[in-house]
Amino acid sequence: MRRTRGNRRRWARQAAASRSSGRTDSLGEDAAKTSVDLGFDPERPQAPKGFPGVELDFALNVAEADFLRSRLVNGCVDPAGRGHEYNLFGTFARYRHKTDAQALWDHPRISGLKAEARDMVMLGAAFARIMYGAAILYNVCVARLMPSNESTERLRSAHATAFIGWAEALNPADVTLLDRRIPDLQALGAITRHGINDRAIAFVRRWTQLCGEPLKLLHDPTASLLVSNREVYLKTSSGTSRIRSAKQRERWRGESGSQQMDFRWFVARSCLNDLATPADA
Fold this sequence. Notes:
The chain is mainly α. It folds into 3 domains: 1-26 and 35-44, no CATH class; 57-103 and 263-281, no CATH class; 115-251, no CATH class. Helix content is 52%, strand content 0%. The protein contains 11 helices and no strands. The longest helix has 31 residues, at 115-145. The chain is elongated.
């Protein structure tokens, strides 16, 4: 809805400047003042009659839902328009029913996406499932460094069991897909103005290669060293590495990254469900 770029402070400066200009502009022949541009889409639904002295809630009406749906459908992730082909809202928002899909790749309209978007979703699904194993193995590595007692033994067993479950469920097709598409990751990240450094790519590549035989990884020192070194690289400078610091392990609650990446699906699903059922439909 907001057309101006930048943070809220920049928007506030622009809105204030527009108001000031509107006050000082001379009246036209028709005695109408120059309109004030507050930086919002002029087609947005108007405030309810009597606002703000009326009872309000967050339920959308049909006009509001249609407006938001049109903005989401036309949304681009890049100012130049690149990435529009990966917008999922156009297809998903046309599904006028609530969904309880647990992952975006389980949405009822996934087959209706454009080929580029569907391929991106499938790549994201493979990436999430494969990298989830690295997160579980990291928990195993930290648990192994904890002092041995009944509690930590249960913790080690629980994480080891979770890892075996992940390894048994891992689809070799996911490994093949991600291994083939790793060279594309940096270019895909650039579309959303996210840089992916070479060390991250190297980690993903090596972990994916090891996942060719996932059931061997629980007791493979190479795999454990890979995920441990990644955590040390990311956290040592901030002093929060659990691999290096016994004090940090003492503060550990027993698991990290215990949920598979969902790419903010639960937030998006909530928005889609609101759009699917406007209050006055």
